[in-house]
Structure formats: C-alpha cells, structure tokens
Amino acid sequence: LAFLSPPARHFLNSSFANMPRFREFEREPHLDMHADDARARGIRDGDTVRVYNERGSYTLRARINGKPRRGVVVAPSVWWKKYSPDGRNANNVTSQRTTDLGGGATFYDCRVEVERVERVAA
Fold first, then answer.
1. Is residue 121 situated within a structural domain?
2. Where in the sequence is the domain holding 91, given as residue range(s)?
3. Which of 6, 65, 99, 111 has a Cα at 20 to 30 A from 105?
4. How many structural domains are present in the chain?
5. Beta 113-116 vs 48-53: how paired, if at all?
C-alpha cells in the first residue's frame, strides 16, 4: 500500500500537537483506508491497526471510508510520540533519504502493509 502522511487538520506537521485543545480536535491518531483494502485484511472501522514496513511500525485506529483510493492509506500526522498509542508515529515507517533533485523529502516513496492488532494500552 502507498502510505501518505499529510499534516493533520489542526496540526502543522508536528507543530501544535502538544496543545491539548488541538489534540482534542484531532481526537486520536488514525489511518484512512479504502473499504476494499480493509476487507482484504480483515480490518473493520475502528479497529486498532499496525502500519509497518522494513523501516519500522506504529499503531493507530483504522477509519474505513472513501477518502483514499484503493491501494493508498492516509495517516494525518504528525502526532508526537508521547501522545501516540504505542509511542511511535509515521516517522517510524518513512525514509530519511532525500530526493536526488533538490534534496527534499521522499514523500511519495513509502510502501507499507497494515494488519489488525489488539488494542494497545496508552
């Protein structure tokens, strides 16, 4: 699955994620998934899931909806690790590599898999 982690609506990347009011607006870290991708993995809306690849993993809540297209998962970010269910976040699965042209982040080059897990104690 292609993994995207755009800024959450009430955070500016990780800025303001420490503010209780903004965390209340965001509610909790979540992963938007297409229904077909979720069904193929036995994942239902509200399940706790682990997003993982060869770089690492992290845990958050699945939201099954029509926001991402099939084959894409979206995790509005970046939650501070101390506010994440397992103390990890999207940075655990993304590359630290930079692009060859301009030295920017490799935003569109992150592949992950998603699996249902038991709820992680906060």
1. no
2. 2-116
3. 65
4. 1
5. antiparallel
**Which whole-number Å values give the CA distances from 95 to 6, 36, 78, 100, 106, in the listed order?**
15, 27, 15, 14, 7
Residue 99 confidence (pLDDT) above 70: yes
SS3 88: coil
Query: Do the beta carbons of residue 82 and residue 18 sit within 8 Å?
Result: no
What lies within 8 Å, CB to CB, of 26 at 6+ separation is: 8, 9, 10, 11, 76, 79
Q: How far is CA 56 from the centre of its chain?
A: 12
Per-residue pLDDT for 7 more than 80? no
Alpha-carbon distances of 40 from 43, 70, 77, 114, 116, rounded to whole Å:
8, 11, 25, 10, 11
Strand pairing category for 30-33 and 56-64? parallel
**pLDDT tens digits, one per residue of 52-66:** 999 999 999 999 998
